Every structure is written in structure tokens, then in C-alpha cells.
Amino acid sequence: MIDLHCHILPGIDDGAKTMEESLAMAESAIGDGITHVVATPHASSEYKFEYERVRTKRDELQAMLGERLQLATGCDFHLNPENLAALKKSPEQFCLNQKDYLLVEFNEFSIPPAMDQMIHQLQLAGLRPIVTHPERNGILRAKPERLAQWVRVGCYGQITAGSLLGTFGPGAKSDALSWISQGLIHFVSSDAHNTRSRPLSLRPAFDFVAVQFGEETARGLFVDNPRAAFEGRALPYVPEVAERREPKIRKRFFFF
Ligand SMILES: [Fe+2]
User: How far is the first Cα of the chain from the last one, in angstroms, to the nearest whole number?
Assistant: First the structure.
């Protein structure tokens, strides 16, 4: 399996605090059957993304791990106008393994219509946006049609492995499951932050998806699609998006 989204690098953001913790997370990944990990530190109002620093930390950790686990870098990219300006200058620094897929995270409190324009700009620039953990975003959970529309125009969806196991509550779990069945999800990643509450693990979620949707879907979401994104290729597993279900219109009675 390949993990496209995690915070394994030490002392960069709210992920691993020390190199020891990074190494423990790497050991957890190896034990879980993960072969490649993309370290994706935040780029947000809280955490500035400094590519050179990210690469230096990656190199240090890779040197300690040798060939046991392949490390690459990307970014957990918070979509806002400032970040977009930085991205335009050097897009590859933010993309997964410096190819063309980009993790895109949305504000939990408001997603203005201008976001649709920003996504379009990313695509015009030749990038392939991946919407990260929509099942943990209250706005997208309330208006899933927004996610469906982005997927219809060529974006991809990534859910967090823990969501499938109930780590983020029953609502996130049920939305994650129903969006997989609707063809809105293309990746499952760990979004690991530490060794305890947010571990670098995919195997239990893989097994769960294999039981719920079959082995082929699990391979698509955890192995084949992540590998393609890692290598900058078109995704091999792109399910058809379910037709939009019109909201039920209640009959209204008018009294005169
Ligand atoms: Fe993240």
C-alpha cells in the first residue's frame, strides 16, 4: 500500500514532534505493509510551508530508514488566495512526489463559491486536485453535492482511513461509506499525525473496505490509485459517479 497523506516529518507542523516519533511512525507503516509514504505537511494560515526544510527533514528520515520505506514529499494544501499565489510560483514543490496531483483541504467553516473558481484555476494549470477528507468537513457533509460536482469536473476524493473505522464519529463513517458507493472516492490515506491517536496505519481500513466493497475496490483505493498518483499517471480505478438524487420536494398545500 501507498500512503499519500501523512504528517510524519518531525517538528514541521502538528504531526510528529521528534525524529524518534517519525521513526516509530515509519516502523508502524512498514509493519502494516506500506511501501511508500508521502509526507504532506500543512500549508495553512497556521503552518507555513517551507519546501527546503521539508526536503531536508525528508532526507534525514530517509537516510535512517534506508530502503525499508520509500519517502516522498507533498503538501496538505489549504486552498486560499495566499497559498494559491505561492503555488503558482512553484507548483511542483506542493504536489505529491513533485508530479501533478495536489492534496487540497478546505476550511471547515466556509467554502465560498470562489473556491470553485480556484479549483478550476488549479486544473487549468495542469494540476489534478484531490479533495482531502471531505467526510470530516461539516460543510461538505451538509452539502455533498458540492463534492460530487467537483468530482464530475475531474477532481478526486480522498478519505481518511480512521474515518472508516469510526475514529471521527459515526457520521463521518457513514458518509465515507456512502461516498465510496457513489463513486466519489479515489484514495484512502492515513493522515497520520502521531503513533497513538492518529497512527500511520492502513491495513485495518483496507480489510474493512475489502469486506464492504470487495477486494478490487480496496486495491483501487489503497494500492493502484495511490501508486498512479505517486508516479504522476492517470488513475486506473475511477468509478462512475452515481446520478444526482434530486432532493425530495414536499408537497405544499395552499389555503386561501
Ligand atoms: Fe493532513
Answer: 65
Residues 65-89 have a mean pLDDT of 94
Q: How much distance in Å is there from the Cα of 14 to the middle of ligand 1?
A: 9
CB 136 within 8 A of CB 100: no
Residue 240, in any domain of the structure: no
Residue 254 lies in a domain: no
Give 253 Cα–ligand 1 centroid separation in angstroms.
Answer: 48
Counting every residue, how long is the chain? 256
**Residue 256 CA to ligand 1 centre (angstroms):** 56
pLDDT in tens, 15-47: 999 999 999 999 999 999 999 999 999 999 899
Is residue 60 in some structural domain? yes
Q: How far is the CA of 98 from the centre of ligand 1 (A)?
A: 17
Name the nearest CA neighbour of 70 among 62, 82, 79: 62
Angle at 163 between CA 96 and CA 12, to 5 degrees: 45
CA of 94 to the centre of ligand 1 (A): 13
Between the CA of 6 and the centroid of ligand 1 the distance, in Å, is 6
| Residues, Cβ < 5 Å to ion ligand 1 | 76, 191
Provide the whole-model pTM.
Answer: 0.93
Using an 8 Å Cβ cutoff, are 185 and 179 in contact? yes
Which range marks the domain in which residue 131 is found? 2-231
Q: How remote is the CA of residue 136 from the centroid of ligand 1, in Å?
A: 11
Q: Which helix (H) or strand (E) holds 222?
A: none
- CATH code of residue 117: 3.20.20.140
Q: Domain tally for the chain?
A: 1
Residue 241 belongs to a domain? no
Cell of 140: 461538505
Strand partners, 76: 42, 103
